Amino acid sequence: MEKTARKVDAGPVEDFTVKIGKEVLIGDLKLAVFRLAEDEFHTIKNECPHKKGPLTEGMISGEHVFCPLHNWKIDITDGQVEEPDEGCVQTFKTEIIDNNVYITV
Amino acid sequence: MKKLVLIGNGMAGIRTIEEIIKREPEQYEITIFGSEPYPNYNRILLSLVLQGDSKVDDIVLNDYDWYKNYGIVLHSGDEVTKVDTENQLVYSSEGKEVPYDKLIFATGSNPFMLPIDGADKEGVIAFRDIKDCETMISTSKSYKKAAVIGGGLLGLEAARGLLNLDMEVDVIHIQDYLMERQLDEPAADMLKKELEDQGMNFLMGKETVKIRGKNRVSSLLFKDGSSIKADLIVMAIGIKPNIALAKEAGLEVERAIVVDDYMQTSAPNVYAVGECVQHRGMVYGLVAPLYEQGKVLAEHITSQTPEQTAGYEGTLLYTQLKVSGVDVFSAGEFVDKEDTKAIRVHDEFEGIYKKVVVRDNKVIGSVLFGDTSDSPRLLDMMKSEQDISEMNKVSILPSEQERGTGESPVVAMAESETICGCNGVCKGDITDAVKTKELSSVQEVTQVTNAGRSCGGCKPLVSDLLEHTLGEEFNKADQKQPMCGCTDHTHEEVQAEIKEKHLTLVREVMNVLEWENKEGCSSCRPAINYYINMVHPLEAEDDANSRFINERVHANIQNDGTFSVVPRMYGGVTNPDELRKIANVADKYNVKMVKVTGGQRLDLLGVNKEDLPGMWEELGMPSGHAYGKAVRTVKTCVGQDFCRFGTQDSIQMGIDIEKKFQGVQTPHKVKMGVSACPRNCAESMIKDIGIVGLQGAWEMYVGGNGGIDLRQGELLCTVETDQEVLDMISAYMQYYRESARYLERTSHWIERLGLEHVKAVVVDDKKRQAELIERMETTLSTFNEPWEQIIQDGKIKQDYYEVKVTS
């Protein structure tokens, strides 16, 4: 069991479309990577806290994604669920190094 | 000109003046005294000012210009202090001395303040005028705890307003249930629960005996020894007629100023109207009777033969009001007695309670809570003392379902039934005014007829009546509903701007129309994207990120994040070859379930997103568009080739329709059916468009719906040839595409526009019909089969379907 944080290479930035979510599987871990602008990447767990909807399939508005199952609104940058719903999605540090996207898990 | 003086610049007095001017604008030179420094305003709506929904200006009924226009001298902020009935003179606090030929007392009433120890402290107020409102608003800025004494209507309105001002509110009521003068116990309990949910705290059965505090109030003491803290105390326990001046002038006064049926007091040429009046032993506090009094008085003092005018005979008391958003109606004797029986409906799910009290086969009282739409009819039954012994008792309170069509209650009302209780305006008055004066908005109706000018509770009815009277000319502009929270623009406005300014990008629309929420949301963006594509089919750039996932990946998302695949089978017809392919694909991709859908198609459920393009490729069948706001399926019956009864080739017709219109984007899904005879095996009557075959003809039914709001389709037209069927569908569907709001099903759309209107456009107006068909053809020319397109496009496959797997 590996508990220490490590940086995982998720591939070149071109593999990610601006404002369309992308699912990245790291072992059993399902992540949702969002490219909000040319050089702005965020990663959160690909699971809505409500009924586990896949957030990569949600509609993106600004810094928020709407869960495709029941329209919960989640802040992509900090994982917080917008009121009146409640909850929080785990976030993962995401950076670009040499044109590649690295996620710290 | 004779001199008329009015004491009191409130609702009853000014209404009397209005009635006088309406009859004889030149008969009197009018002078008005009012103690408040405002023109006549709507006291009933003070709670709106307190709740922050309106400003003082919004509730002014007659502005200063009105006084000027009619040459009325208004002394606002100046009180009459003395009346000399012998020499017919009034004297004011500012030293004015005005002679009169006729004098009207309309001094109204004062709030009743509990005569208890501490009632004179700072922070103890009533809820009666604009000044009280202002005190509450300013207090809320520095204090937190408010207490309202009195759980009647006024007290609850004050409490609601204080909640809106962010104060904590305790409501103290001496009785065991609220509003006991208007409600019975079950209704009062429902109201209490609703208000508790809104944040009010109730102390029932408590009698306040003392108000404590140094200069300013700090707490309340009750008879049972308990106490609560409070920084502000609003006394709302009742009103008492303001009769001091009348008493001093020597008029006959009991509980209020005593008047006869012509509103005449004991002194010659002195009259009284309003809350300060006692007529046949009754003192009224509601606006409707006061306005009736005003009318009688105006008729009397403007008539050449005053003795022959109709007198006032008293008013059947009833109230219709909104308490914190809850509709409440009460009238007559609504408390059960030994000689009464009652009809009750109590729906705890919907929060609706209705009770009708009957004595000797006549309705004598009623309480309605949560839904007051029965009130005009019940009032009419009470007024006319209708004998109900022959009536089915259940039909006195028809349920929503039995009422059926969702038609507004105004449609069934008699012309003589009252719509605006406050101002005594009946249905006929409004329809006449709408027709003769060409009125087109609720506001205009109010200006002309006074309906809705007081409590405003009847405005929805007025609006319905206006719509019903005008038909398609009804202008909904003043009931404008914004698209979503991101903007103030309506669907119609956005669509018009897209057309006019030739906008072809979602982002551009939000920019140009100055969206408050710049990035939009999951409600408005798909709508804008639809409108752009519909208005500019050849130029629009579809925005994948403004599409719900189903339409972005052309499959239906399921509750576990997998998708379902429904291949197109035109008319619901398949063959062994297709079935074999489907079976093979289902095996290969471990499809969890194969299911026949309601639209006669096969649904492959539980498919991973990344497998979708591969499956489609192996199926080699087009998309069934089961996921889209688009033309879905055409369900068919077997028809004349096999069926003993079939009179038409329904299958071929269905296939032709489906091939022509497949995938056309619509405001909401469009389901169709073709049956070969009126036995309707394809359920054509509950389809958005249902075709029914007859011998040598096709009937086209529209607006059917088998979903949430079950609705039977209505006959749009009957045509002879298959080509005419296709043309009519083109014209009808294009008109729906152009005039419906995004996510409005055809059933709701056609109810909004009316079948007759739609008929007039798509069936009768041949020119418009041809134009609609032409625009539909343009749209059809842009159709691309989506699955094939995706299979061919590696970039789309990579961007939308592939999952990245790393370790």
TrEMBL record, chain A:
* UniProt keyword annotations, A-Z: 2Fe-2S, Iron, Iron-sulfur, Metal-binding, Nitrate assimilation, Oxidoreductase
A Pfam entry, by short name: Rieske
Q: Which InterPro entries match?
A: Rieske-like_NirD, Rieske_2Fe-2S, Rieske_2Fe-2S_sf
State whether keyword Metal-binding applies. Answer: yes
Ranges for domain Rieske come to 8-103
Taxonomy, superkingdom: Bacteria
- Name one molecular function that GO assigns to this entry: nitrite reductase [NAD(P)H] activity
Q: Which GO terms describe its biological process?
A: nitrate assimilation
Positions in coiled-coil regions: none
Q: What is this protein called?
A: Nitrite reductase small subunit NirD
CDD domains cross-referenced by the UniProt entry: Rieske_NirD_small_Bacillus (cd03530)
TrEMBL record, chain B:
Q: Name one GO molecular function term.
A: flavin adenine dinucleotide binding
Domain (BFD-like [2Fe-2S]-binding): residue spans on this chain:
419-467, 483-533
Query: Which UniProt keywords are present, listed alphabetically?
Result: 2Fe-2S, 4Fe-4S, FAD, Flavoprotein, Heme, Iron, Iron-sulfur, Metal-binding, Nitrate assimilation, Oxidoreductase
- Flavoprotein as UniProt keyword: yes
Cofactor: binding details? Binds 1 siroheme per subunit. Binds 1 [4Fe-4S] cluster per subunit.
Hey, which pathway is this one from?
Answer: Nitrogen metabolism; nitrate reduction (assimilation)
Task: Extract the SUPFAM superfamilies matched here.
Answer: FAD/NAD(P)-binding domain (SSF51905), Nitrite and sulphite reductase 4Fe-4S domain-like (SSF56014), Nitrite/Sulfite reductase N-terminal domain-like (SSF55124)
Q: Quick one: signal sequence residues? A: none
Give the matching CDD domains. Answer: NirB_Fer2_BFD-like_1, NirB_Fer2_BFD-like_2
Residue ranges of domain Nitrite/sulphite reductase 4Fe-4S in the record = 628-765
Q: Which cofactor does it need?
A: [2Fe-2S] cluster; siroheme; [4Fe-4S] cluster; FAD
Residues annotated for siroheme binding in this entry: C681
Q: Which residues form the Nitrite/Sulfite reductase ferredoxin-like domain?
A: 558-619
Q: Which residues form the FAD/NAD(P)-binding domain?
A: 3-281
Biological processes, Gene Ontology terms? nitrate assimilation
The NADH-rubredoxin oxidoreductase C-terminal domain, residue ranges: 319-385
Residue positions annotated to bind [4Fe-4S] cluster are: C637, C643, C677, C681
Q: Which PANTHER family match?
A: NITRITE REDUCTASE (NADH) LARGE SUBUNIT (PTHR43809)
Q: Which family does it belong to?
A: Belongs to the nitrite and sulfite reductase 4Fe-4S domain family.
What is the protein name given in its UniProt record? Nitrite reductase large subunit NirB
Q: Which gene encodes it?
A: nirB
